[in-house]
Predict the structure of GNAT family N-acetyltransferase.
Amino acid sequence: MQWKKKLFDVLTVQELYAILKARVDVFVVEQNCPYGEIDNYDQVSTHLYLENDGEIIAYARLLPRNVKYKEASIGRVLVNQTYRKNGYAKELLERSIAVILEEWKEPAIKIQGQEYLRQFYGSFGFKEISDIYLEDDIPHVDMLLRT
């Protein structure tokens, strides 16, 4: 298994396909939520993922500030269903936060997290900054991490 961090323009066709398949498998199929997965943010994002023989184990999309929010952002956070409960989500978030705070030198990270993951994100220092709201019929909450 190998962690990779790539800009959109250097992803191979196979890597991009595997990423999009993993995202659709989790967010559309598993969560039974038909929505527009392809949203034109991928092209300006950094893609951080754990890959094993072409299969995506864990993935997050890191968006620079002033793209979706005024702050940098972490989105599309997932762990392949087969590999859950092995600490990959924690490692993925730690790596994502490190890229944004340490490499990009950003002072804050905003996320739009699913409501049931509030405590998980809170364990990294994210604070709720919105009420719970529905996004694609799934309860979400906006959260912010400041350094």
Observations:
- The chain has a mean pLDDT of 95.
